[in-house]
Specification:
mainly alpha, about 70% helix, globular
């Protein structure tokens, strides 16, 4: 007798959704600009109607699983982004990135926190968390606007800025997430809270993330290319080393109470300086990108499946706040930050507008949900899910074309 297993049906449906998400766009163009949006949409269509599934899988109810999967997506993506950077030591090229991180991101956090508090009626801690979760751009879903693979170049200032911003701002948003959780625990600005936050969450953890990332990236380079020189590990072409490397960088840094996201990116950057023309860097990047794509596809399909449960808590104020972030706040904060930068007018606009939101936001909110009890978490998930959905559709369909126009370079496959 044939037996219908719900588990096997789930696997088949998951596979069909992934295939369709990457296959259907080929009828329109030779690229996959809408794959992320299609993954969410197909997950919604295939699983969102199943009775009880959206509620059972909701990250608001079971945040730990979402935290772990999205964490893996982000750290693997950050390591791969670090490996992509061919030319590192050019301070003029880093100027727009520094401006976006030092000015654009804090302005975005403040604006979103204000809207969450004043417009949505969230408490101070929840409003600050909303800004912290949605301020960073995403290193995982921004492949259409990033630089090329290792040794390929394609490092136009627009692509370089969007790539390096996404590589660093996930880690740099963490202090603000910690501040919101501290406020939620203390119920107010307790004496010494800000001093502890500055010393521990800002200065120590950021510095430790950068130091550990650089040191581990350097050690990985020695292990891969230098010892033993006559029989280097790079000769094996074992791409799984990328996964092992990012696990070491992230795990050691988190044990040292540093920011593992910063370490993952910096270790990739540092490793890329070892034998920088070696073809093995391409192998490492491609392997990490494959793992990243697989995890991201499953995560986005899962997000689509729980959309009915999450968007049930979305009200008009939340939707307007989400649209304001994508259409007004991020572009305005980006343009403000880029005043005086080396980028030209159209280039500034493209960099300011195309800040994709995605897996990083899912991770931060899952992390918050699994580490504290916070009032209004359902509304935060509703706004975040809405922003990710709109961002994947709006940015996903247009980013590659806009960046091509601004750079004069065709998108690489």
């Amino acid at each position: 007798m044939f037996e219908v297993s719900s588990y096997h049906v789930l696997l088949a449906a998951l596979g069909v959704a992934i295939i369709l998400a990457y296959w259907l766009p080929r009828f329109v163009s030779g690229r996959e600009p809408a794959a992320s949006a299609l993954l969410i949409g197909l997950g919604w269509a295939m699983f969102g109607w199943v009775p009880g599934m959206p509620q059972a899988l909701s990250p608001a109810a079971a945040p730990k699983v979402w935290e772990l999967v999205s964490e893996l997506c982000v750290i693997v993506g950050l390591f791969g982004v670090g490996l992509r950077i061919d030319r590192l030591f050019d301070l003029r090229r880093w100027s727009p990135t520094i401006r976006l991180l030092a000015v654009g991101m804090p302005v975005t956090i403040a604006a979103m926190a204000f809207l969450g508090w004043y417009g949505a009626g969230l408490g101070l801690a929840a409003a600050l968390l909303l800004g912290s979760v949605l301020a960073p751009t995403d290193p995982v879903l921004a492949g259409d606007v990033q630089v090329g693979r290792p040794t390929e170049g394609g490092e136009h200032p627009v692509r370089f800025t969007l790539t390096t911003e996404a590589g660093l701002n996930d880690g740099l948003a963490f202090p603000f997430v910690h501040l919101s959780l501290a406020l939620a625990a203390a119920m107010a600005f307790a004496p010494g809270l800000l001093e502890t936050w500055v010393l521990r969450d800002v200065l120590y953890r950021i510095s430790m993330g950068a130091i550990c990332g650089a040191a581990i990236g350097w050690l990985l380079g020695k292990v891969l290319f230098d010892f033993p020189r006559e029989n280097a590990l790079a000769k094996t072409e074992a791409g799984v080393f990328a996964l092992a490397g990012v696990f070491v960088a992230y795990g050691v840094t988190e044990l040292a109470e540093g920011y593992g996201f910063i370490a993952a990116f910096v270790s990739g950057l540092t490793l890329r300086r070892s034998e920088s023309d070696h073809a093995f860097h391409v192998r490492l990047h491609d392997f990490s990108e494959t793992i990243e794509h697989a995890l991201t596809a499953m995560l986005l399909i899962g997000l689509g499946a729980v959309m009915p449960a999450l968007l049930a808590h979305l009200d008009i104020a939340g939707a307007l706040i989400g649209l304001a972030l994508i259409l007004v706040i991020r572009p305005a904060a980006g343009m403000l930050a880029l005043i005086g930068s080396p980028l030209a007018g159209r280039q500034r606009w493209v960099v300011a507008f195309y800040g994709v939101r995605g897996v990083g936001s899912i991770y931060y909110l899952s992390y918050a949900g699994s580490h504290t009890e916070l009032a209004g978490l359902d509304r935060l998930w509703a706004i975040t899910a809405f922003v990710v959905l709109v961002s994947t559709v709006l940015h996903g369909f247009s980013a590659a074309f806009a960046v091509e126009r601004a750079t004069g370079e065709k998108q690489r496959d």
